[in-house]
Design goal:
mainly alpha, 4 helices, 0% strand, elongated
Length: 83
C-alpha cells in the first residue's frame, strides 16, 4: 500500500500530465483557428483589410510584429488589389 505522500505525488503527477495535455490541446485549437482565419482573409479583400487592421492594433510586441510582417504584406496586397 502506498503512503499518503506517495499517493499525493502520484496524483500531482497525473494532474501535471492533464494540464500539459490541456495546454497542448488549447495550442492546437489556436493554430487551427488561426490558419482558417488567415486563409479566409487571403480570399476576401474585406476580410484581409479587417484582419490586417486587427493585427496592427493588437500585436504590439516587437518580435511578434516582426514575425507577422510577411502576412501583413500579403493581407495588404489582397485588400488593395481587389478592394
Amino acid at each position: 500500500m502506498k503512503t499518503l505522500d506517495q499517493q499525493i505525488a502520484t496524483a500531482e503527477s497525473k494532474l501535471a500530465l492533464l494540464r500539459s495535455k490541456k495546454k497542448a490541446t488549447d495550442t492546437r485549437v489556436k493554430i487551427i483557428v488561426g490558419a482558417v482565419v488567415v486563409k479566409a482573409a487571403l480570399e476576401s479583400p474585406d476580410a484581409a483589410a479587417k484582419l490586417a487592421g486587427l493585427l496592427r492594433d493588437r500585436v504590439t510586441r516587437d518580435l511578434d510584429v516582426k514575425d507577422i510582417q510577411q502576412l501583413l504584406a500579403s493581407l495588404d496586397k489582397k485588400a488593395v488589389r481587389n478592394g
